[in-house]
Design brief:
Low-confidence stretches of chain B: 319-324
Number of domains of chain A: 1
Strand content of chain B: 5-15%
Order of helices and strands of chain B: HEHEHEHEHEHEHEHHHEH
CATH class of chain B: Alpha Beta
Radius of gyration of chain A: 16 Å
Number of domains of chain B: 1
Oligomer: heterodimer
Radius of gyration of chain B: 19 Å
Mean pLDDT of chain A: 89
Shape of chain A: globular
Number of strands of chain B: 8
Helix content of chain A: 25-40%
Number of helices of chain A: 5
Structural class of chain B: alpha/beta
Structural class of chain A: mainly alpha
Order of helices and strands of chain A: HHHHH
């Protein structure tokens, strides 16, 4: 069932975009650290945990990484595969696991809406957001805030 | 056409900007606290290459630190490439080290993700990976060009660094690799050093795509090469060293060579690969990696016809050949 869901990334990206639209009107009540955060954290843990093996980084970029959680990469890479991917497409660190970036790349090809976002340079993680509700962070732009010295990219990748 | 200013003014940058086919080589870091061990290795390499890579605990094995090797090398007038792996240090430590390295005269930086700790001699260690290689490049570029830390705090003197990144055209997902290179160049890479190349056909296909994307005009690409000591060493490398792909033909060629001649044959294969790689449009140089065989590097560079290396006046940038 999970594999089935993951293999239909286009469906997942639509669910994802839809969810944000549903949550947006409740923005006033859904605040970081607010009373509604704990139940949302629980929802994310259970829902995204089951489907994506979510690690609760609090800065979800699933739609930019082929609906494949980059935090499941043992090196936590957010910008693509390392050079250690095995010839059979498996992970350098865990030989029994397929490289999550190999999967991300395959899935991104099937994602007409946000598949191209694989090319976006992802900023360093804000480690303080670990364990918080990424949906709430997203509604308030907390997840996309970057350090002051992280300057916008002046030469975007083609 | 006016020459754009040099980004760091390193010898490597000058050689590349000058349109010369560059040679860099890896120095095997000693398991020792004696600087003489570094100088012995550097002495052999310095005459045959334009810059010496100081590796950062390669394969996650503990050795003398790369920043210290760089300090020893610059002190003696050698030109190092300071390798920084994201595996062992967080963003605070890395940014501090970049300033320190630049203060000691380091002008080339190679940003890499790093082999995982499980490959090394201390697999029980904590892996850091606070930044990834692309984020590190982006940070280093902001330090150099905007003169700020990641936090936005101003630097009084920014580090002048020629920024490098690694690439592995030989690991899956193959179709994505050129685009990942594009991402590294967008993040700030001025030069690229690739993983060991034993599969020239694969490299040709990769470079075709790189040229289609125009990337060879935005960064200098140095292809990684190295000699195989024996068929056993080849087997070991392809099984144990992450990201190294050695085609069966090469292993077979070594296997059919008598034991005593295998070292020579490995060297010959390396020279042939350099000559083939040199013909590929967009390849700006080679990066030699010879594990504990520095003396062999000199023989290979000579046999490949890459001597003498440019020095002094010869590496002044001339406007007509300046590309980047």
């Amino acid at each position: 069932m999970l594999r089935f869901l993951q293999n239909y990334p286009h469906f997942l990206e639509l669910v994802y975009a839809g969810l944000l639209r549903v949550l947006r009107p409740f923005r006033r009540w859904l605040r970081p650290g607010g009373r509604l955060e704990p139940p949302l954290i629980w929802l994310e843990k259970v829902g995204k945990g089951a489907v994506f093996d979510c690690r609760m980084c609090g800065q979800c970029i699933l739609h930019s990484t082929g609906m494949t959680c980059p935090m499941t990469c043992p090196k936590n890479l957010r910008n693509g595969p390392c050079g250690g991917v095995r010839p059979n497409g498996h992970c350098e660190v865990k030989p029994e696991m397929r490289c999550i970036w190999v999967q991300a790349y395959e899935r991104a090809q099937k994602m007409p809406v946000s598949g191209h976002e694989l090319r976006v340079i992802q900023p360093p993680l804000n480690r303080r957001l670990e364990g918080s509700a990424s949906w709430i962070n997203m509604l308030h732009g907390v997840d996309t805030a970057v350090p002051q010295g992280w300057l916008p990219d002046d030469h975007p990748a083609p | 056409m006016t020459t754009p200013p040099l980004k760091a003014g390193s010898r490597l940058e000058r050689v590349l900007r000058n349109g010369r086919f560059a040679v860099t080589a890896e120095l095997n870091p000693p398991d020792s606290a004696d600087p003489v061990d570094v100088y012995k290795a550097a002495l052999v390499l310095s005459e045959v290459c334009d810059a010496i890579n100081a590796v950062d605990a390669s394969g996650a094995n503990c050795h003398m630190s790369s920043v210290a090797i760089c300090a020893l090398l610059t002190r003696a007038g050698y030109e190092p490439v300071y390798q920084v792996a994201c595996r062992d240090r967080n963003r605070i430590a890395i940014q501090g080290d970049l300033l320190g390295a630049a203060a000691m005269g380091v002008k080339n930086l190679l940003c890499i993700t790093g082999d995982d700790v499980t490959n090394g001699d201390q697999p029980e260690a904590k892996r850091v990976f606070d930044l990834d290689a692309i984020q590190l490049l982006h940070t280093a570029r902001a330090m150099r060009d905007q003169g700020v830390f990641l936090s936005g705090r101003k630097l009084t003197t920014p580090p002048r660094l020629f920024l490098g990144a690694a690439a592995n055209p030989f690991a899956p997902p193959f179709d994505w690799r050129p685009e990942r290179l594009a991402k590294k160049i967008a993040a700030g890479a001025d030069f690229i050093q690739t993983q060991y190349c034993f599969d020239v056909a694969r490299l040709r296909a990769y470079m075709q795509r790189v040229r289609d994307l125009g990337l060879h005009e935005k960064a200098f690409i140095l292809v990684g090469v190295g000699p195989l000591r024996s068929d056993k060493a080849a087997e070991f490398m392809r099984r144990k060293v992450p990201g190294v792909v050695i085609p069966d033909e090469i292993v077979e060629r070594l296997r059919q060579t008598p034991k005593v001649r295998q070292r020579e044959e490995g060297k010959q294969i390396c020279v042939e690969i350099i000559q083939q790689v040199r013909e590929i449009e967009g390849v700006a140089g080679v990066h030699l990696m010879a594990y504990r065989q520095e003396a062999l590097v000199a023989e290979i560079v000579q046999a490949a016809g890459l001597l003498p290396r440019p020095r002094g006046k010869a590496v002044q940038v001339r406007p007509r050949t300046a590309v980047i």
